[in-house]
Each structure stands twice: as structure tokens, then as C-alpha cells.
Amino acid sequence: MGVLKQAAVILVIAYILNKIPSYLKPKLKPRYEGYFHPEFRKVAEAFRKYVENGEERGASMAFYHKGELLVDMWGGFADPASERHWKNDTLCLMYSATKGVTALLVAQFVDRGLLDYNKKVSDYWPKFGQNGKEDMTLETLISHQGGLAETNGTIPLEWMITEPEKAEAFAERQKPTWKPGTKLGYHGITYGLFIDILMQKADPKHRNIGQILRDEVSVPFEIDIYNGLPYAELHRVARQTPLDFSAMIWDYLTSFNIRYYKLLYNFFGPTGFMKTLATSGFHPISGTLDNPDIIRIPMSSFLGFGNGRSLGKLFGIVANGGKHKGKQFLSKQTIDRLAKPVVNRPGEYGILPNAGLGVFYFPNGKGNVVMGSIGAGGQIAYADLDNNVGFGYVTNHGGSFQFNDDHKVLEYQKLFYECLEKYLETKK
Q1: Pairing between β-strand 389-395 and β-strand 304-306 as defined by DSSP bridges
Q2: What are the angstrom distances between the C-alpha of 241 and each of 90, 214, 285, 338?
Q3: What whole-number distance in Å separates Cα of residue 304 and Cα of residue 241?
Q4: Is 349 helix (H, G, I), strand (E, B) or coil?
Q5: Where does the Beta-lactamase-related domain lie (predicted)?
Q6: Could you tell me where the beta strands, DSSP code E, fall in 66-116?
Q7: Can you tell me the mean pLDDT for 91-117?
Q8: Which of 81, 170, 190, 194 is 20 to 30 A from 12 in CA distance terms?
Q9: CB distance 89 to 110 below 8 Å
Q10: Contact criterion met (CB below 8 Å) for 79 and 239
């Protein structure tokens, strides 16, 4: 037998020996737990179904209605490698759903007169007003119309806490790639770079965005949510299984849906979103999102941590008029303004059809248009103002369908609204 044939045989044997243990190893049985009002059993049963069949590998979700927690479920694995199950207090990276949380904090600052959507960013941050950004308003910046999705060079994310002056100077010298206010283009990475610095400058105490979230939301409203994760909370975090782009491409191609074919091009085309990410704010960090030294950094673009209950409660407060247990989070006037799109036209990178003041608009399981935020892999949070419903969902296993179009999440929503209709009938 020739050397090449021997090598081929050895490779095949090695491959088989490597794979056999994984097939022989007993399959771990996932758990699902939680609470649900008896009238909403169908929602919990759907969640159980997907945990048991392996489609829901690790997730939590919650629905609030008029301040009442009606469904709160969690299940699957927080870390399959260590056989660690998802628990009631497991925290998960929220990715871009973090943007929506910070948008609510900006709205709170507007309520308090610390910010004004119609004022120039440079009114609060004078050195921002250069290189074509002189007249950019907060509304233009927060609605992804600023033309700052791409940057001239990138910086280490760590600079946001170790070298804040350098991070500021980097942000200040950026030049928009289009005239601010004339186009819509998702600022996937740079949203936090600009908004977080602005918030710290507008805040009388000059707190960073993580401290603002803690002081204005986490503590007063008893919501388990973070922007930048303290070392002391690491034991609760679900380990991330990143979005598999090859699987995403396959899922989109086999959907036989023109919408997903367009999304593929908008993601991976010559001027697509993935190209933008390569020149967007920070050095590449995709492989470090389980690194404690990285995830401790407050960053509204993608480094928020919470669970379904966290997001459902926060957006449920907004959906219920902005007040919870006598404490006012947002005024009705500001909520009404958040509910109105600022721009409604195709985005430059094909990701967004519309944008508001840091929030987006999409149909829910009932067909209503809701406002909220979505994140890579399927994270979602929204306020349904028509029905006074807050919904939150997070998963540590990135999926291909991440625009509130995952069939599991849509089924949860559909069943919830069906149950809600019957529930409200019984209360008449």
C-alpha cells in the first residue's frame, strides 16, 4: 500500500475514533421550568415541546400584561459542555436588543430635560461637532441616520473604560459616509460608541451607561439587567453558541422566500452589512464574547445581559403607560413619541425597513405592529402598546431567523394572544 493510501486510511480511522465517543455518550436530557397563569398553559406547553425536541437548546421568555407576569419560562442548557442547565436567574447576552434598552434610557433623559431629540449632539458634546457632524441632532443619530456605521479605523473595545479620552477623540474625528438625515443605515456596532459617550456627558453625575442602567432601572424597578457584566455575576451567564453563518446561508437558501434571498445579499454582498462590520468602531471581538474582561465593558451596541423576564418586565412597563408600582419610568408623551417611526424607507444595508428613536417596529404574533429591539441570533424585546403587553426572549444558541421571524418565537406569541383574549373574557 502506498504512503498516500496509508495516510488516507489513518485519517479515516482517526476520524471514526474521534466521532464514536460523541455517538456513544448518553444524550443529556434538557430541563424546562417556570411559571404560567393557568389560562396560558398552551404557551408553556409549546415551550416545553421545543425544549424536549431539541429546537430550543437554551432560552428564556416572559410575557407581561398590565404589569402582571403571565408567562415566565426557561429551559435547555446554559452550558452544554459542562452540563449546566438554564435556571430561573440565568443571564444571557442580549446582543443588539441592548440598543432598545438604552433607547429607553435616552427617552428617560429626554423626559427629565437632560436631552432633547431636536437639539444638536454638539450642544451636549461640543467636540462631536466637526467633520460634517456639526448640525446632527440626537434624533438623527439615534435613528441610525447619522452615516456613522463605518469608521475611519477601529479601536480596542477596552478603551471605553481604560482609555475613555482616546475613545472620545476617535469618535469625535469620524466623518459621516452620507449627509446626516438623508439615509437610513443600521449602526450595528457604532451605536453604543456614540450614544454611550453622549449619555455620560449629558448626565449630571457623568455615570457610564452601565451605572445609569443600574441606578435608573435595575434597582428602582427590581429588574435583573446589566450593561456590562460585573465579575460577581459571571457564574450566572449562559455560554454563547455563536450564529453559524453557513447554517444561516443554508436556511435562507432553502426557505424559497425572496425576502431571505435579499437578506443574504444584504448581509454578504459587496456593500453588505458584513463588510460594514469590518470597519465599524472596534477591533473584531466575535470570538471573545465569553471573555469576562470583555463582557464587563458597558457597551449599548451588544453587551447587555438579562433574560426573558428582564426584557419582558422593562418593555411591559412601557406598554403599560410607563409606570410601575407608583414609580414613573417614562411619561405617556415620550412613549407616544417613541411609538412613531422617524424614518420609513429601505436601509443602506438592507437590514431595517424603518427606525424610530432607537427602537424598531415589526409585527407580533397577533399581527399588531409593536415597538422594540432585536438581537443577533433571535433575542427580542417589545412593547405592544395596543394590548399593554411586554415580551422578552433570549437564547444562547444563535439562530438564523433573528427578525422576530423564528417559527418557535412566533408560535409563543400567537398562542399567548389567543390565551390573552380568553383570559380577558373571563375577567369581564
Answers
A1: unpaired
A2: 15, 27, 14, 33
A3: 16
A4: coil
A5: 44-404
A6: 68-79, 84-85, 92-93
A7: 98
A8: 81
A9: no
A10: yes
* Segments of 120-191 assigned E as strands: none
Q: Could you count the other beta carbons within 10 Å of the beta carbon of residue 279?
A: 14
Residue 98 CA to residue 95 CA, distance in Å, equals 6
pLDDT at res. 407: 92
Virtual torsion, Cα 334, 339, 342, 343, nearest 10 deg: 170
- At residue 1, does pLDDT exceed 90? no
Q: Give pTM, 2 decimals.
A: 0.91
N- to C-terminal Cα separation, the chain: 84
CA–CA separation, 218 and 326 (whole Å): 16
Q: Which three cell numbers stand for residue 51?
A: 425544549
| Residue 221: predicted pLDDT | 98
Domain at 92-420, CATH homologous superfamily: DD-peptidase/beta-lactamase superfamily (3.40.710.10)
**Please, which residues have CB within 8 angstroms of residue 151's CB and are 6 or more apart in sequence?**
170, 174, 190, 279, 280, 281
Which stretches does DSSP call E strand in 265-344?
304-306, 323-324, 327-328
User: Could you give the CA distance from residue 27 to residue 396 in angstroms, rounded to a whole number?
Assistant: 19
pLDDT over threshold 90, residue 273 = no
Q: What is the pLDDT of residue 329?
A: 99
Q: What are the Cα distances from residue 322, in Å, to 104, 300, 313, 325, 374? A: 10, 21, 11, 10, 21
- Please tell me the distance from the alpha carbon of residue 103 to that of residue 304, in angstroms, as a whole number: 13
Q: Quick one: cell of 56? A: 430550543
Q: Nearest 5 degrees, angle CA 46-CA 48-CA 52?
A: 120
DSSP state of 355: B
- 408, 55 contact by CB (below 8 A): yes
Q: Which grid coordinates are listed for 104?
A: 429607553
